[in-house]
Write a structure and sequence with these properties.
This protein is mostly helical. The chain has one domain (3-169): Up-down Bundle (Four Helix Bundle (Hemerythrin (Met), subunit A)), CATH 1.20.120.1760. The protein has helices at residues 3-25, 27-50, 56-79, 85-106, 118-136, 140-169.
Amino acid sequence: MNIPNILTIIRIILVPVFIFAFFFISKWVALCVFILAGISDLLDGYIARKYNLVTELGTLLDPFADKLMLISVLISFTIADYIPVFMLVIMVIKELFMICAAAKLYFKKEKIVIPANKFGKTSTVLFYIASFIIIFNINAILNDVLMALVIISTILAFFSYYKIVKDKIL
């Protein structure tokens, strides 16, 4: 077990911590947990690549941890009525597609891994920014604009990943 994998496991452990903090402690604490998860995601990827510590376990767990946190935040926001259900549905459909497609490609003989692309990364960055604005209720119009951009970038990411998956599977 190396440092990047430990950071990924910590990120998975932070998911229930985020949910508990969001509903029972404070939105501020929940946001801190969410930011900590984001920082650990950046760190584990950086360390794994820089020091050649990429492992099969990390290749599988890292995107799982990302998607688990993202879906947990989205469900929490939907329950708290911060975002409409349709946003949750769009985001979850894309994430479930990614999980299923990644598993199918990885467990083929070639063990294909789909790398993140600019649409997926843009969607993630916008989601972190939008989450901050949502939790602190900074500006309703800015929140709506950012969430619209998150949805658009998520849809673009879905289609770009779909094209990659379709080309690899067929």
